[in-house]
Input
Amino acid sequence: MQKILFATSEVYPLIKTGGLADVSGSLPRALLKLGCDIKILLPAYPGVLEKAASVGLKQIAQLEIDGNAVIIKQTRLPGTKVAVWLVDIAEFSERAGNPYCGPDGNDWYDNHKRFYIFSKAAELIALNQANLDWQPDIVHCNDWQTGLIPALLSLHPDHPATVFTIHNLAYRGLFSHQAFAELNLPQAFWHHERLEFYGQMSFIKGGIAFADYVTTVSPSYAREIQKPEFGYGLDGLLRYRSDSLAGILNGIDNDEWNPGTDAHLVATYNRRTLGNKRKNKQALQEKMGLAVNSEIPLLGFIGRLVDQKGVDLILSQMSRLLTSNYQLVILGSGFPHYEQTLRNIAEQNPHKVAIHLGYDESLAHQIEAGSDIFLMPSIFEPCGLNQMYSLRYGTLPVVHAVGGLRDTVVEHSLDEIANGANGFVFQQPEGDELFAALERATLAYHQPDVWKKLQLNAMSQDFSWQTSAKAYCDIYTELQTK
Ligand code: ADP
Ligand code: GLC
Output
């Protein structure tokens, strides 16, 4: 039985800001099913401690890291048998809200220290020096917050093998030289082949440079990040690591995102009862104050309101959207200028555009079910989960051909229906192309037989973790036998 320490900074349903949490909640469950002995290592944020208390929470170890008292607590991922170990320091457990930034929206001033201590705790556990009587065979790290772990472990000759998964290279975990000097790291790490990155320290570079194996979350993104356009200055290093780099498409949690059983919906549905989807559209139109009309194509968008998600492309087409026969519902939060612009548009067009700013899990499910078409015009998208959720809900996606969107959405053209077409894809991240793809979608939408065929194609696809979790296991096995 492979023993895996899975280090991550968010796990659904304990704490979530984006897709990393979804993956960290569902992949470990799939690995458990495949017979792995898996422990998730997570910072003990206040919200996590609160939720964990109702599942069961106990202290299992106390460590000292560079003069800081660090407590390790154990809980379980709610509704599962997956063990979660929480790293409890005041810098995590006394900071409510977003895990990475304060109420003013700025990153916490000591993020380098917070995630350094987290990484040191992972190092001690990995070396079986945390009085837990358990040593992993593999330490699987995720994104910049855990990038120091492979670097720290490289200092020990007999360390467990390390896997580092890049969920988003745009977040490189950059800190000043001063911050580097504040951490108890070997001076040798300040080198352009290690943590130093154009005069700064990059945490994600630690993961990429030092892990025994690097993965990312879709095959296309694995290719893209090796090019300057998507490489954020790390493409050279990624090309250097290309023999130990793989793109493994994320799976989704088929129980959580299942239109047949989804408790957030007014009416559940599946391929045979697809007609019930209509009731969710009506409920969404009512809830969001849109004109209730089953004929108007209802477009949905859910996501962080940041440049990555192509909000500019949607805004560039807004006047065309408003003069054409569409409705648009948006759920998200992010950059204040996007929030303000979208709020103004919704206020001026209350029956056509509705926006909910903030985070709302239940509304996300209702938008997936109630919309006809899902907009995901991301400029880049390592994997993307929302397009997979929308496919499962028979809500056909309009996407830019990039990263995981390219790997999951197949363009519809009349002769391609039989070949698994399930959505609408545009090639260049330009507003006109987005609108043209939307027009193709609308044309199909007004041909009910065609639309239904596409919906059934979409809903028949298997995005479960089975294949991808097995791919991770194969990497673990390969590393163990090296
Ligand atoms: P990313 O991780 O880049 O944000 P993904 O598509 O991988 O993008 O995952 C985003 C996840 O976060 C999805 O589960 C999506 O439903 C959820 N999400 C994003 N914004 C919101 C929001 N405002 N309210 C509820 N869920 C949201
Ligand atoms: C990141 C990416 C997203 C991906 C998610 C989970 O946040 O932006 O594309 O789906 O991680 O891997």
Notes: Residues 18-20, 23, 167-168, 217, 250, 381-385, 404 surround alpha-D-glucopyranose (ligand 2) (CB under 6 Å). DSSP finds 20 helices and 18 strands in the chain.
